[in-house]
Amino acid sequence: MSLFRGRRILAGAMTVVAAAAMTACGSKTTDEGGATGVSADVSGDTVKVGLLNSLSGTMAISEVTVRDAIMLAVEEINAAGGVLGKKIQPVGEDGASDWPTFAEKAEKLISEDRVAAVFGCWTSASRKAVKPVFEKNKALLFYPVQYEGLEQSPYIFYTGATTNQQIVPGLDYLKAQGAKSVYLVGSDYVFPRTANKIIKAYATANGMAVLGEDYAPLGSTEFGTIVNKVKSSGADAVFNTLNGDSNVAFFKEYKSAGLTAAAMPVVSVSIAEEEVKSIGTQYLEGQLTAWNYYQTTPGAANSKFVAAYKAKYGADKPTSDPMEAAYVGVHLWKAMVEKAGAFDVEKVRSASDGITFDAPEGLVTVDGKTQHIAKTARIGKIGADGLITEVWNSGKPVAPDPYLKTYPWASGLS
Amino acid sequence: MTAVTPAPPSTAVAPAPAGAAPPNPPGRRSRLRTAAGFAFGAALLFAVAPLVLSDFRLALLAKYLCVAMVAVGIGIAWGRGGMLTLGQGVFFGLGGYAMAMHLKLADAGPGGMPDFMQLYGQLDELPLWWRPFASPWFALPATVLLPMAVAFGLGSLVFRRRVRGAYFAILSQALAAAMVILLIGQQGTTGGTNGLTDIKGFFGYDLDDPVNQRMVYFIIAGTLLALLALTRQLIHSRYGELLVAVRDGEERVRFLGYDPASVKLVAYVVAAGMAGLAGALFVPAVGIISPALIGIVPSIEFVIGVAVGGRATLLGPVLGAVAVAWARTALSERFPGTWTYLQGLLFVVVVAFLPGGLASLWALARRRDVGARPVRRGWLPAARRRAERTEVPAA
To answer: How far does the signal peptide extend, from start to end residue (chain A) (predicted)?
Structure first.
């Protein structure tokens, strides 16, 4: 008796399949084909833009606030008559905190909805996942979050800080305060690991000692060991690149170990007003943050932004740096389109250089070469009321330098 | 293709039989039905889908079919073998990374290095363990053999020691968690959380070109059909019956003189190989492989698809995997804010009312048509009885 029955029939079926496959694959193309950009649909009296944020999953808590800020900007622009006389019609998609989903949704927004630009993404991994999609289709993404630098895609505008606008000023501030040693604590993913590489290069060049470097898995809440190591290291300061929930556990542990902001300050680069609220001000009071915008940043543009945001979403909702950067991104896109006189991506890109916007964080200028924006760096101190007040700023906008080419100590980094 | 398959009139054209452990050897009619089913599946995947779907939707279908390949493997290991494997992401990832490493190296050109290594790793030269993947003769077999080897190693240890049930499930899941931590920790050489992205070419073909994306789809569809054919042979062979016997009464099989550990090992290794192949084909279809695709959550999602489809049947896992993935896309596009609730509701409904999975719907409908047995107790209990016959309670 044969071990495998019905062999002949199966072989027949397989032949059919193989034949079908071969005829289907008959049309091979040359390599140079490819990359036909899908142009945006601007035929009607509206223009579609894509909103790509995680509305579910671990990143939702942060990314929903960004979505809200983008919607606010869209409404403001529509109320003022739209862009080139067309009202903006937002198309929302959920990235679901899942990187391939981001890529899928980006493709959908570009090829099915034919949007003129997409606003969103938060994590580096999601940006890396959608980057090829935007480059392939020659479509535009406005990315609103501070990130690890070392990137410059022709189809992405980076409206958050790159490293020389956030991390380097944070280190400069610590150095000016007399810190001789730092301890690095971060979540285990690309941004903290890359940021810490930069920090170590900076420390070596500036005579600062890095006494330790520890990573916790994303979402980890077990910090007993790490905090003990931090404490026994006796470092002058801690540089914190932890993300999300981990901060809650870390700062609770930090306080219960008897460490204080006065004795060993923690500089955080991922804690904004929204996170301060959820971590609890009793654990954070007096600690430092490095950003480009705080809810308390002075200026008429910010008062207007904060008032409009609170009026739309509730008086208890704080505004934060990534939200502001997302809001700025929409306005910058509008200014670029109007300067170009068209929605065409290549025209918008070539019109981008030198575009300025009186943003809530102060005047920002688009650098057409890197497609980043010049932003003022600000170090803030977390207050008992949960708001962050500025203790230092760079005085003027810092020109973006994603590859840190103007810093001799960073020459080995890229 | 029509010449091969004059479908018997009594069994309408349908995607193959549910094939749930037939008590009798499959006769001529059953074989014809299988062939008809395969021809129908081939027609659907090779002719209908490319005609009616846009390039974007076809690329999504390619992604779903990759998930379906993993599901076919889980159908063997879990549905037929009773091993609830919650770590198929590991094998999917091994296959995916092996393929992505080769494609990244091919993109970089001879002597080149993948872009991320200079950025995150500051490496001057390619790490030793990357080098073999430059050769397609190493990388391609590795996509399947590497996962199979890992499964063999783990399986030999685990099944000999008679680890099963929840302990096996936990162990397989721990493996997925460990692999993710390893990949993220070695950011300089693995790309960390970003994974390997921005894959431009596939053996000389430019993946940005829609025609070549179509070609990738056809390769995936063909591979899935081939895996289904292989699986059908496997479950209808004596080995397949032995596997079910081990699932239903491992001790009894042992006393009959068989070695249940080897029987389970084969199913586990085959399932791993299928997951590896799926991962390898996922990379050119989607252009990314990352730890987020292979950890605990995606591993569980693979199993959910199989459960929804009907784990002990041939086609159930495929239908379930595609249905779950399709529903995810469709729901999230229509209701970006609330789709997760709807998806959860869908799972609850299927598990509560169709414990045999979607595949049991077909069996149910067929029984009604043919009226082979007097079924008067309504469709719900019938579905449940059917499910009880083809499934065992979790070990």
So the answer is: 1-20
